[in-house]
Amino acid sequence: MPRKSKSDLIKVPPTYWEDLKKMDMNRVCECSLAISHDSGGLRILFLNNDVHVDVENRCLWRIYPDRREKIDHSLLELVVLVYLLNVTHDLVSREMISVSDLKDAHFFQGPHTLKTGPILKQYGRDLVGFKKAAESLDGEFLDLADAAYKFSPLPKIPLYYLLWEGDDEFDPHLSILFDRSIERHLSADAIWGLVNLVSNELLMAGQPR
């Protein structure tokens, strides 16, 4: 589950919760592939975490078999809400595209450049470590690059991480790809935030417990 970081300094607009509460939950579930929660609100998967979106109390909970734990992570909260508020009936296209192929590609520059540096620093010369971390997050192995995985941070939002290992001659390289449909469900800033969440989870998965 995501841990708070320096990038998690945002505030979730209260109107997001208010707008979600006004929506038809059956329709939200149908579009987002979430399911209704027994105590109200929605139940949705973030990677391999079972999350309760508690609309009444305006918060997220991590669901365990025998308990639940409140999630204090505003970036995750924001991304989940943006997804639920904007997700459409459109299905995953299964066409991988790069950040430069997005309609809002200009957004991903300067401070919003996708942050691949920390992943490369930790795993650029450690394919075994990258594979273990990816698989611990239920990443689906892909026969691409030197090591590649498909992640499912949200039901209709796959992300693809393709890693080329560095050696004495070449620096390591990482490409993060998207499904063609992603902009039908998420705004550019939410896409950027989602990549940060997944990358942070990969980094944490490789840390000693």
Describe this structure in words.
It is a single chain. This protein is an alpha+beta fold and 209 residues long. The chain has two domains: 14-86, no CATH class; 96-205, TATA-Binding Protein (2-Layer Sandwich), CATH 3.30.310. Helix content is 31%, strand content 24%. The protein contains six helices and ten strands. It has helices at residues 14-22, 25-32, 74-86, 117-123, 127-136, 188-205, and strands spanning 35-36, 42-46, 49-54, 59-63, 68-71, 96-97, 140-142, 147-154, 157-164, 173-179. It has a five-stranded antiparallel β-sheet, covered by helices on one side. It has a five-stranded antiparallel β-sheet with strand order 6-10-9-8-7. Helix 1 runs parallel beside helix 3 (74-86) and helix 5 packs across helix 6 (188-205). The longest helix is centred in the C-terminal third of the chain and has 18 residues, at 188-205. It is globular. 32% of the residues are buried. The mean pLDDT is 93.
Topology (SSEs and partners):
Elements lengths: L13 H9 L2 H8 L2 E2 L5 E5 L2 E6 L4 E5 L4 E4 L2 H13 L9 E2 L19 H7 L3 H10 L3 E3 L4 E8 L2 E8 L8 E7 L8 H18 L4
Antiparallel strand pairs: 1-2, 2-3, 3-4, 4-5, 6-10, 7-8, 8-9, 9-10
**Counted beta strands:** 10
The rough form would be described as globular
Instruction: Assign the CATH architecture of the largest domain.
Output: 2-Layer Sandwich
Tally the helices: what do you get? 6
Overall pLDDT: 93
CATH first level of the largest domain: Alpha Beta
Give the radius of gyration: 17 Å
